[in-house]
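Per your request, structure below.
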């Protein structure tokens, strides 16, 4: 089944995020075994998710959700919850970033604290994406109009994806390499 281009792009971003969350999970697994994880890789992932998902993907969704809620009363509750989760994810991501930065700088930071912060972040994100895919995207595709999609797109700064886009930023070079070696 072919999707509306906006929905196809939306799903593709979720796929990218899930790929990164998987990489992050692998590092958390390393932490569980008592080894030292790759903090730099973890930070790259969080930086990307903070910079692109929180600043671009989520504001666009918030506008799409707002419009969808006007058209579908039955979705209002889930849309409101997802909107709230965007704030929680941003805050949890910032918290995790601070802990990882401290760990990378060899400050004393408890591994248990990082484990909890990272595991919470992963669960939150994973469930969030799954709920959007299952409960929101099909309804959005059915009910949103071209002008809704345009408004959603314009709700965030016109910024290309700094990691998966056509012109990736140099600061994510290592992360890109890691992703392509995973995909191979
Ligand atoms: Fe979202
Ligand atoms: Fe999303």
């Amino acid at each position: 089944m072919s999707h509306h281009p906006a929905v196809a792009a939306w799903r593709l971003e979720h796929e990218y995020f899930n790929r990164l969350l998987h990489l992050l999970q692998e590092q958390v697994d390393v932490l569980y075994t008592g080894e030292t994880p790759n903090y730099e890789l973890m930070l790259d992932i969080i930086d990307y998710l903070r910079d692109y998902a929180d600043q671009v993907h989520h504001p666009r969704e918030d506008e799409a959700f707002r419009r969808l809620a006007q058209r579908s009363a039955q979705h209002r509750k889930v849309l409101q919850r997802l909107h709230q989760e965007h704030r929680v994810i941003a805050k949890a991501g910032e918290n995790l970033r601070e802990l990882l930065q401290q760990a990378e700088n060899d400050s004393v930071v408890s591994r248990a604290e990082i484990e909890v912060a990272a595991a919470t972040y992963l669960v939150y994100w994973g469930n969030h994406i799954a709920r959007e895919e299952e409960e929101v995207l099909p309804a959005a595709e059915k009910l949103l109009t071209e002008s809704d999609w345009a408004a959603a797109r314009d709700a965030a700064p016109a910024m290309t994806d700094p990691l998966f886009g056509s012109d990736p930023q140099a600061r994510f070079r290592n992360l890109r390499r890691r992703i392509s070696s995973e995909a191979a």
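The first helix runs from residue 5 to 32.

Regards,
D.
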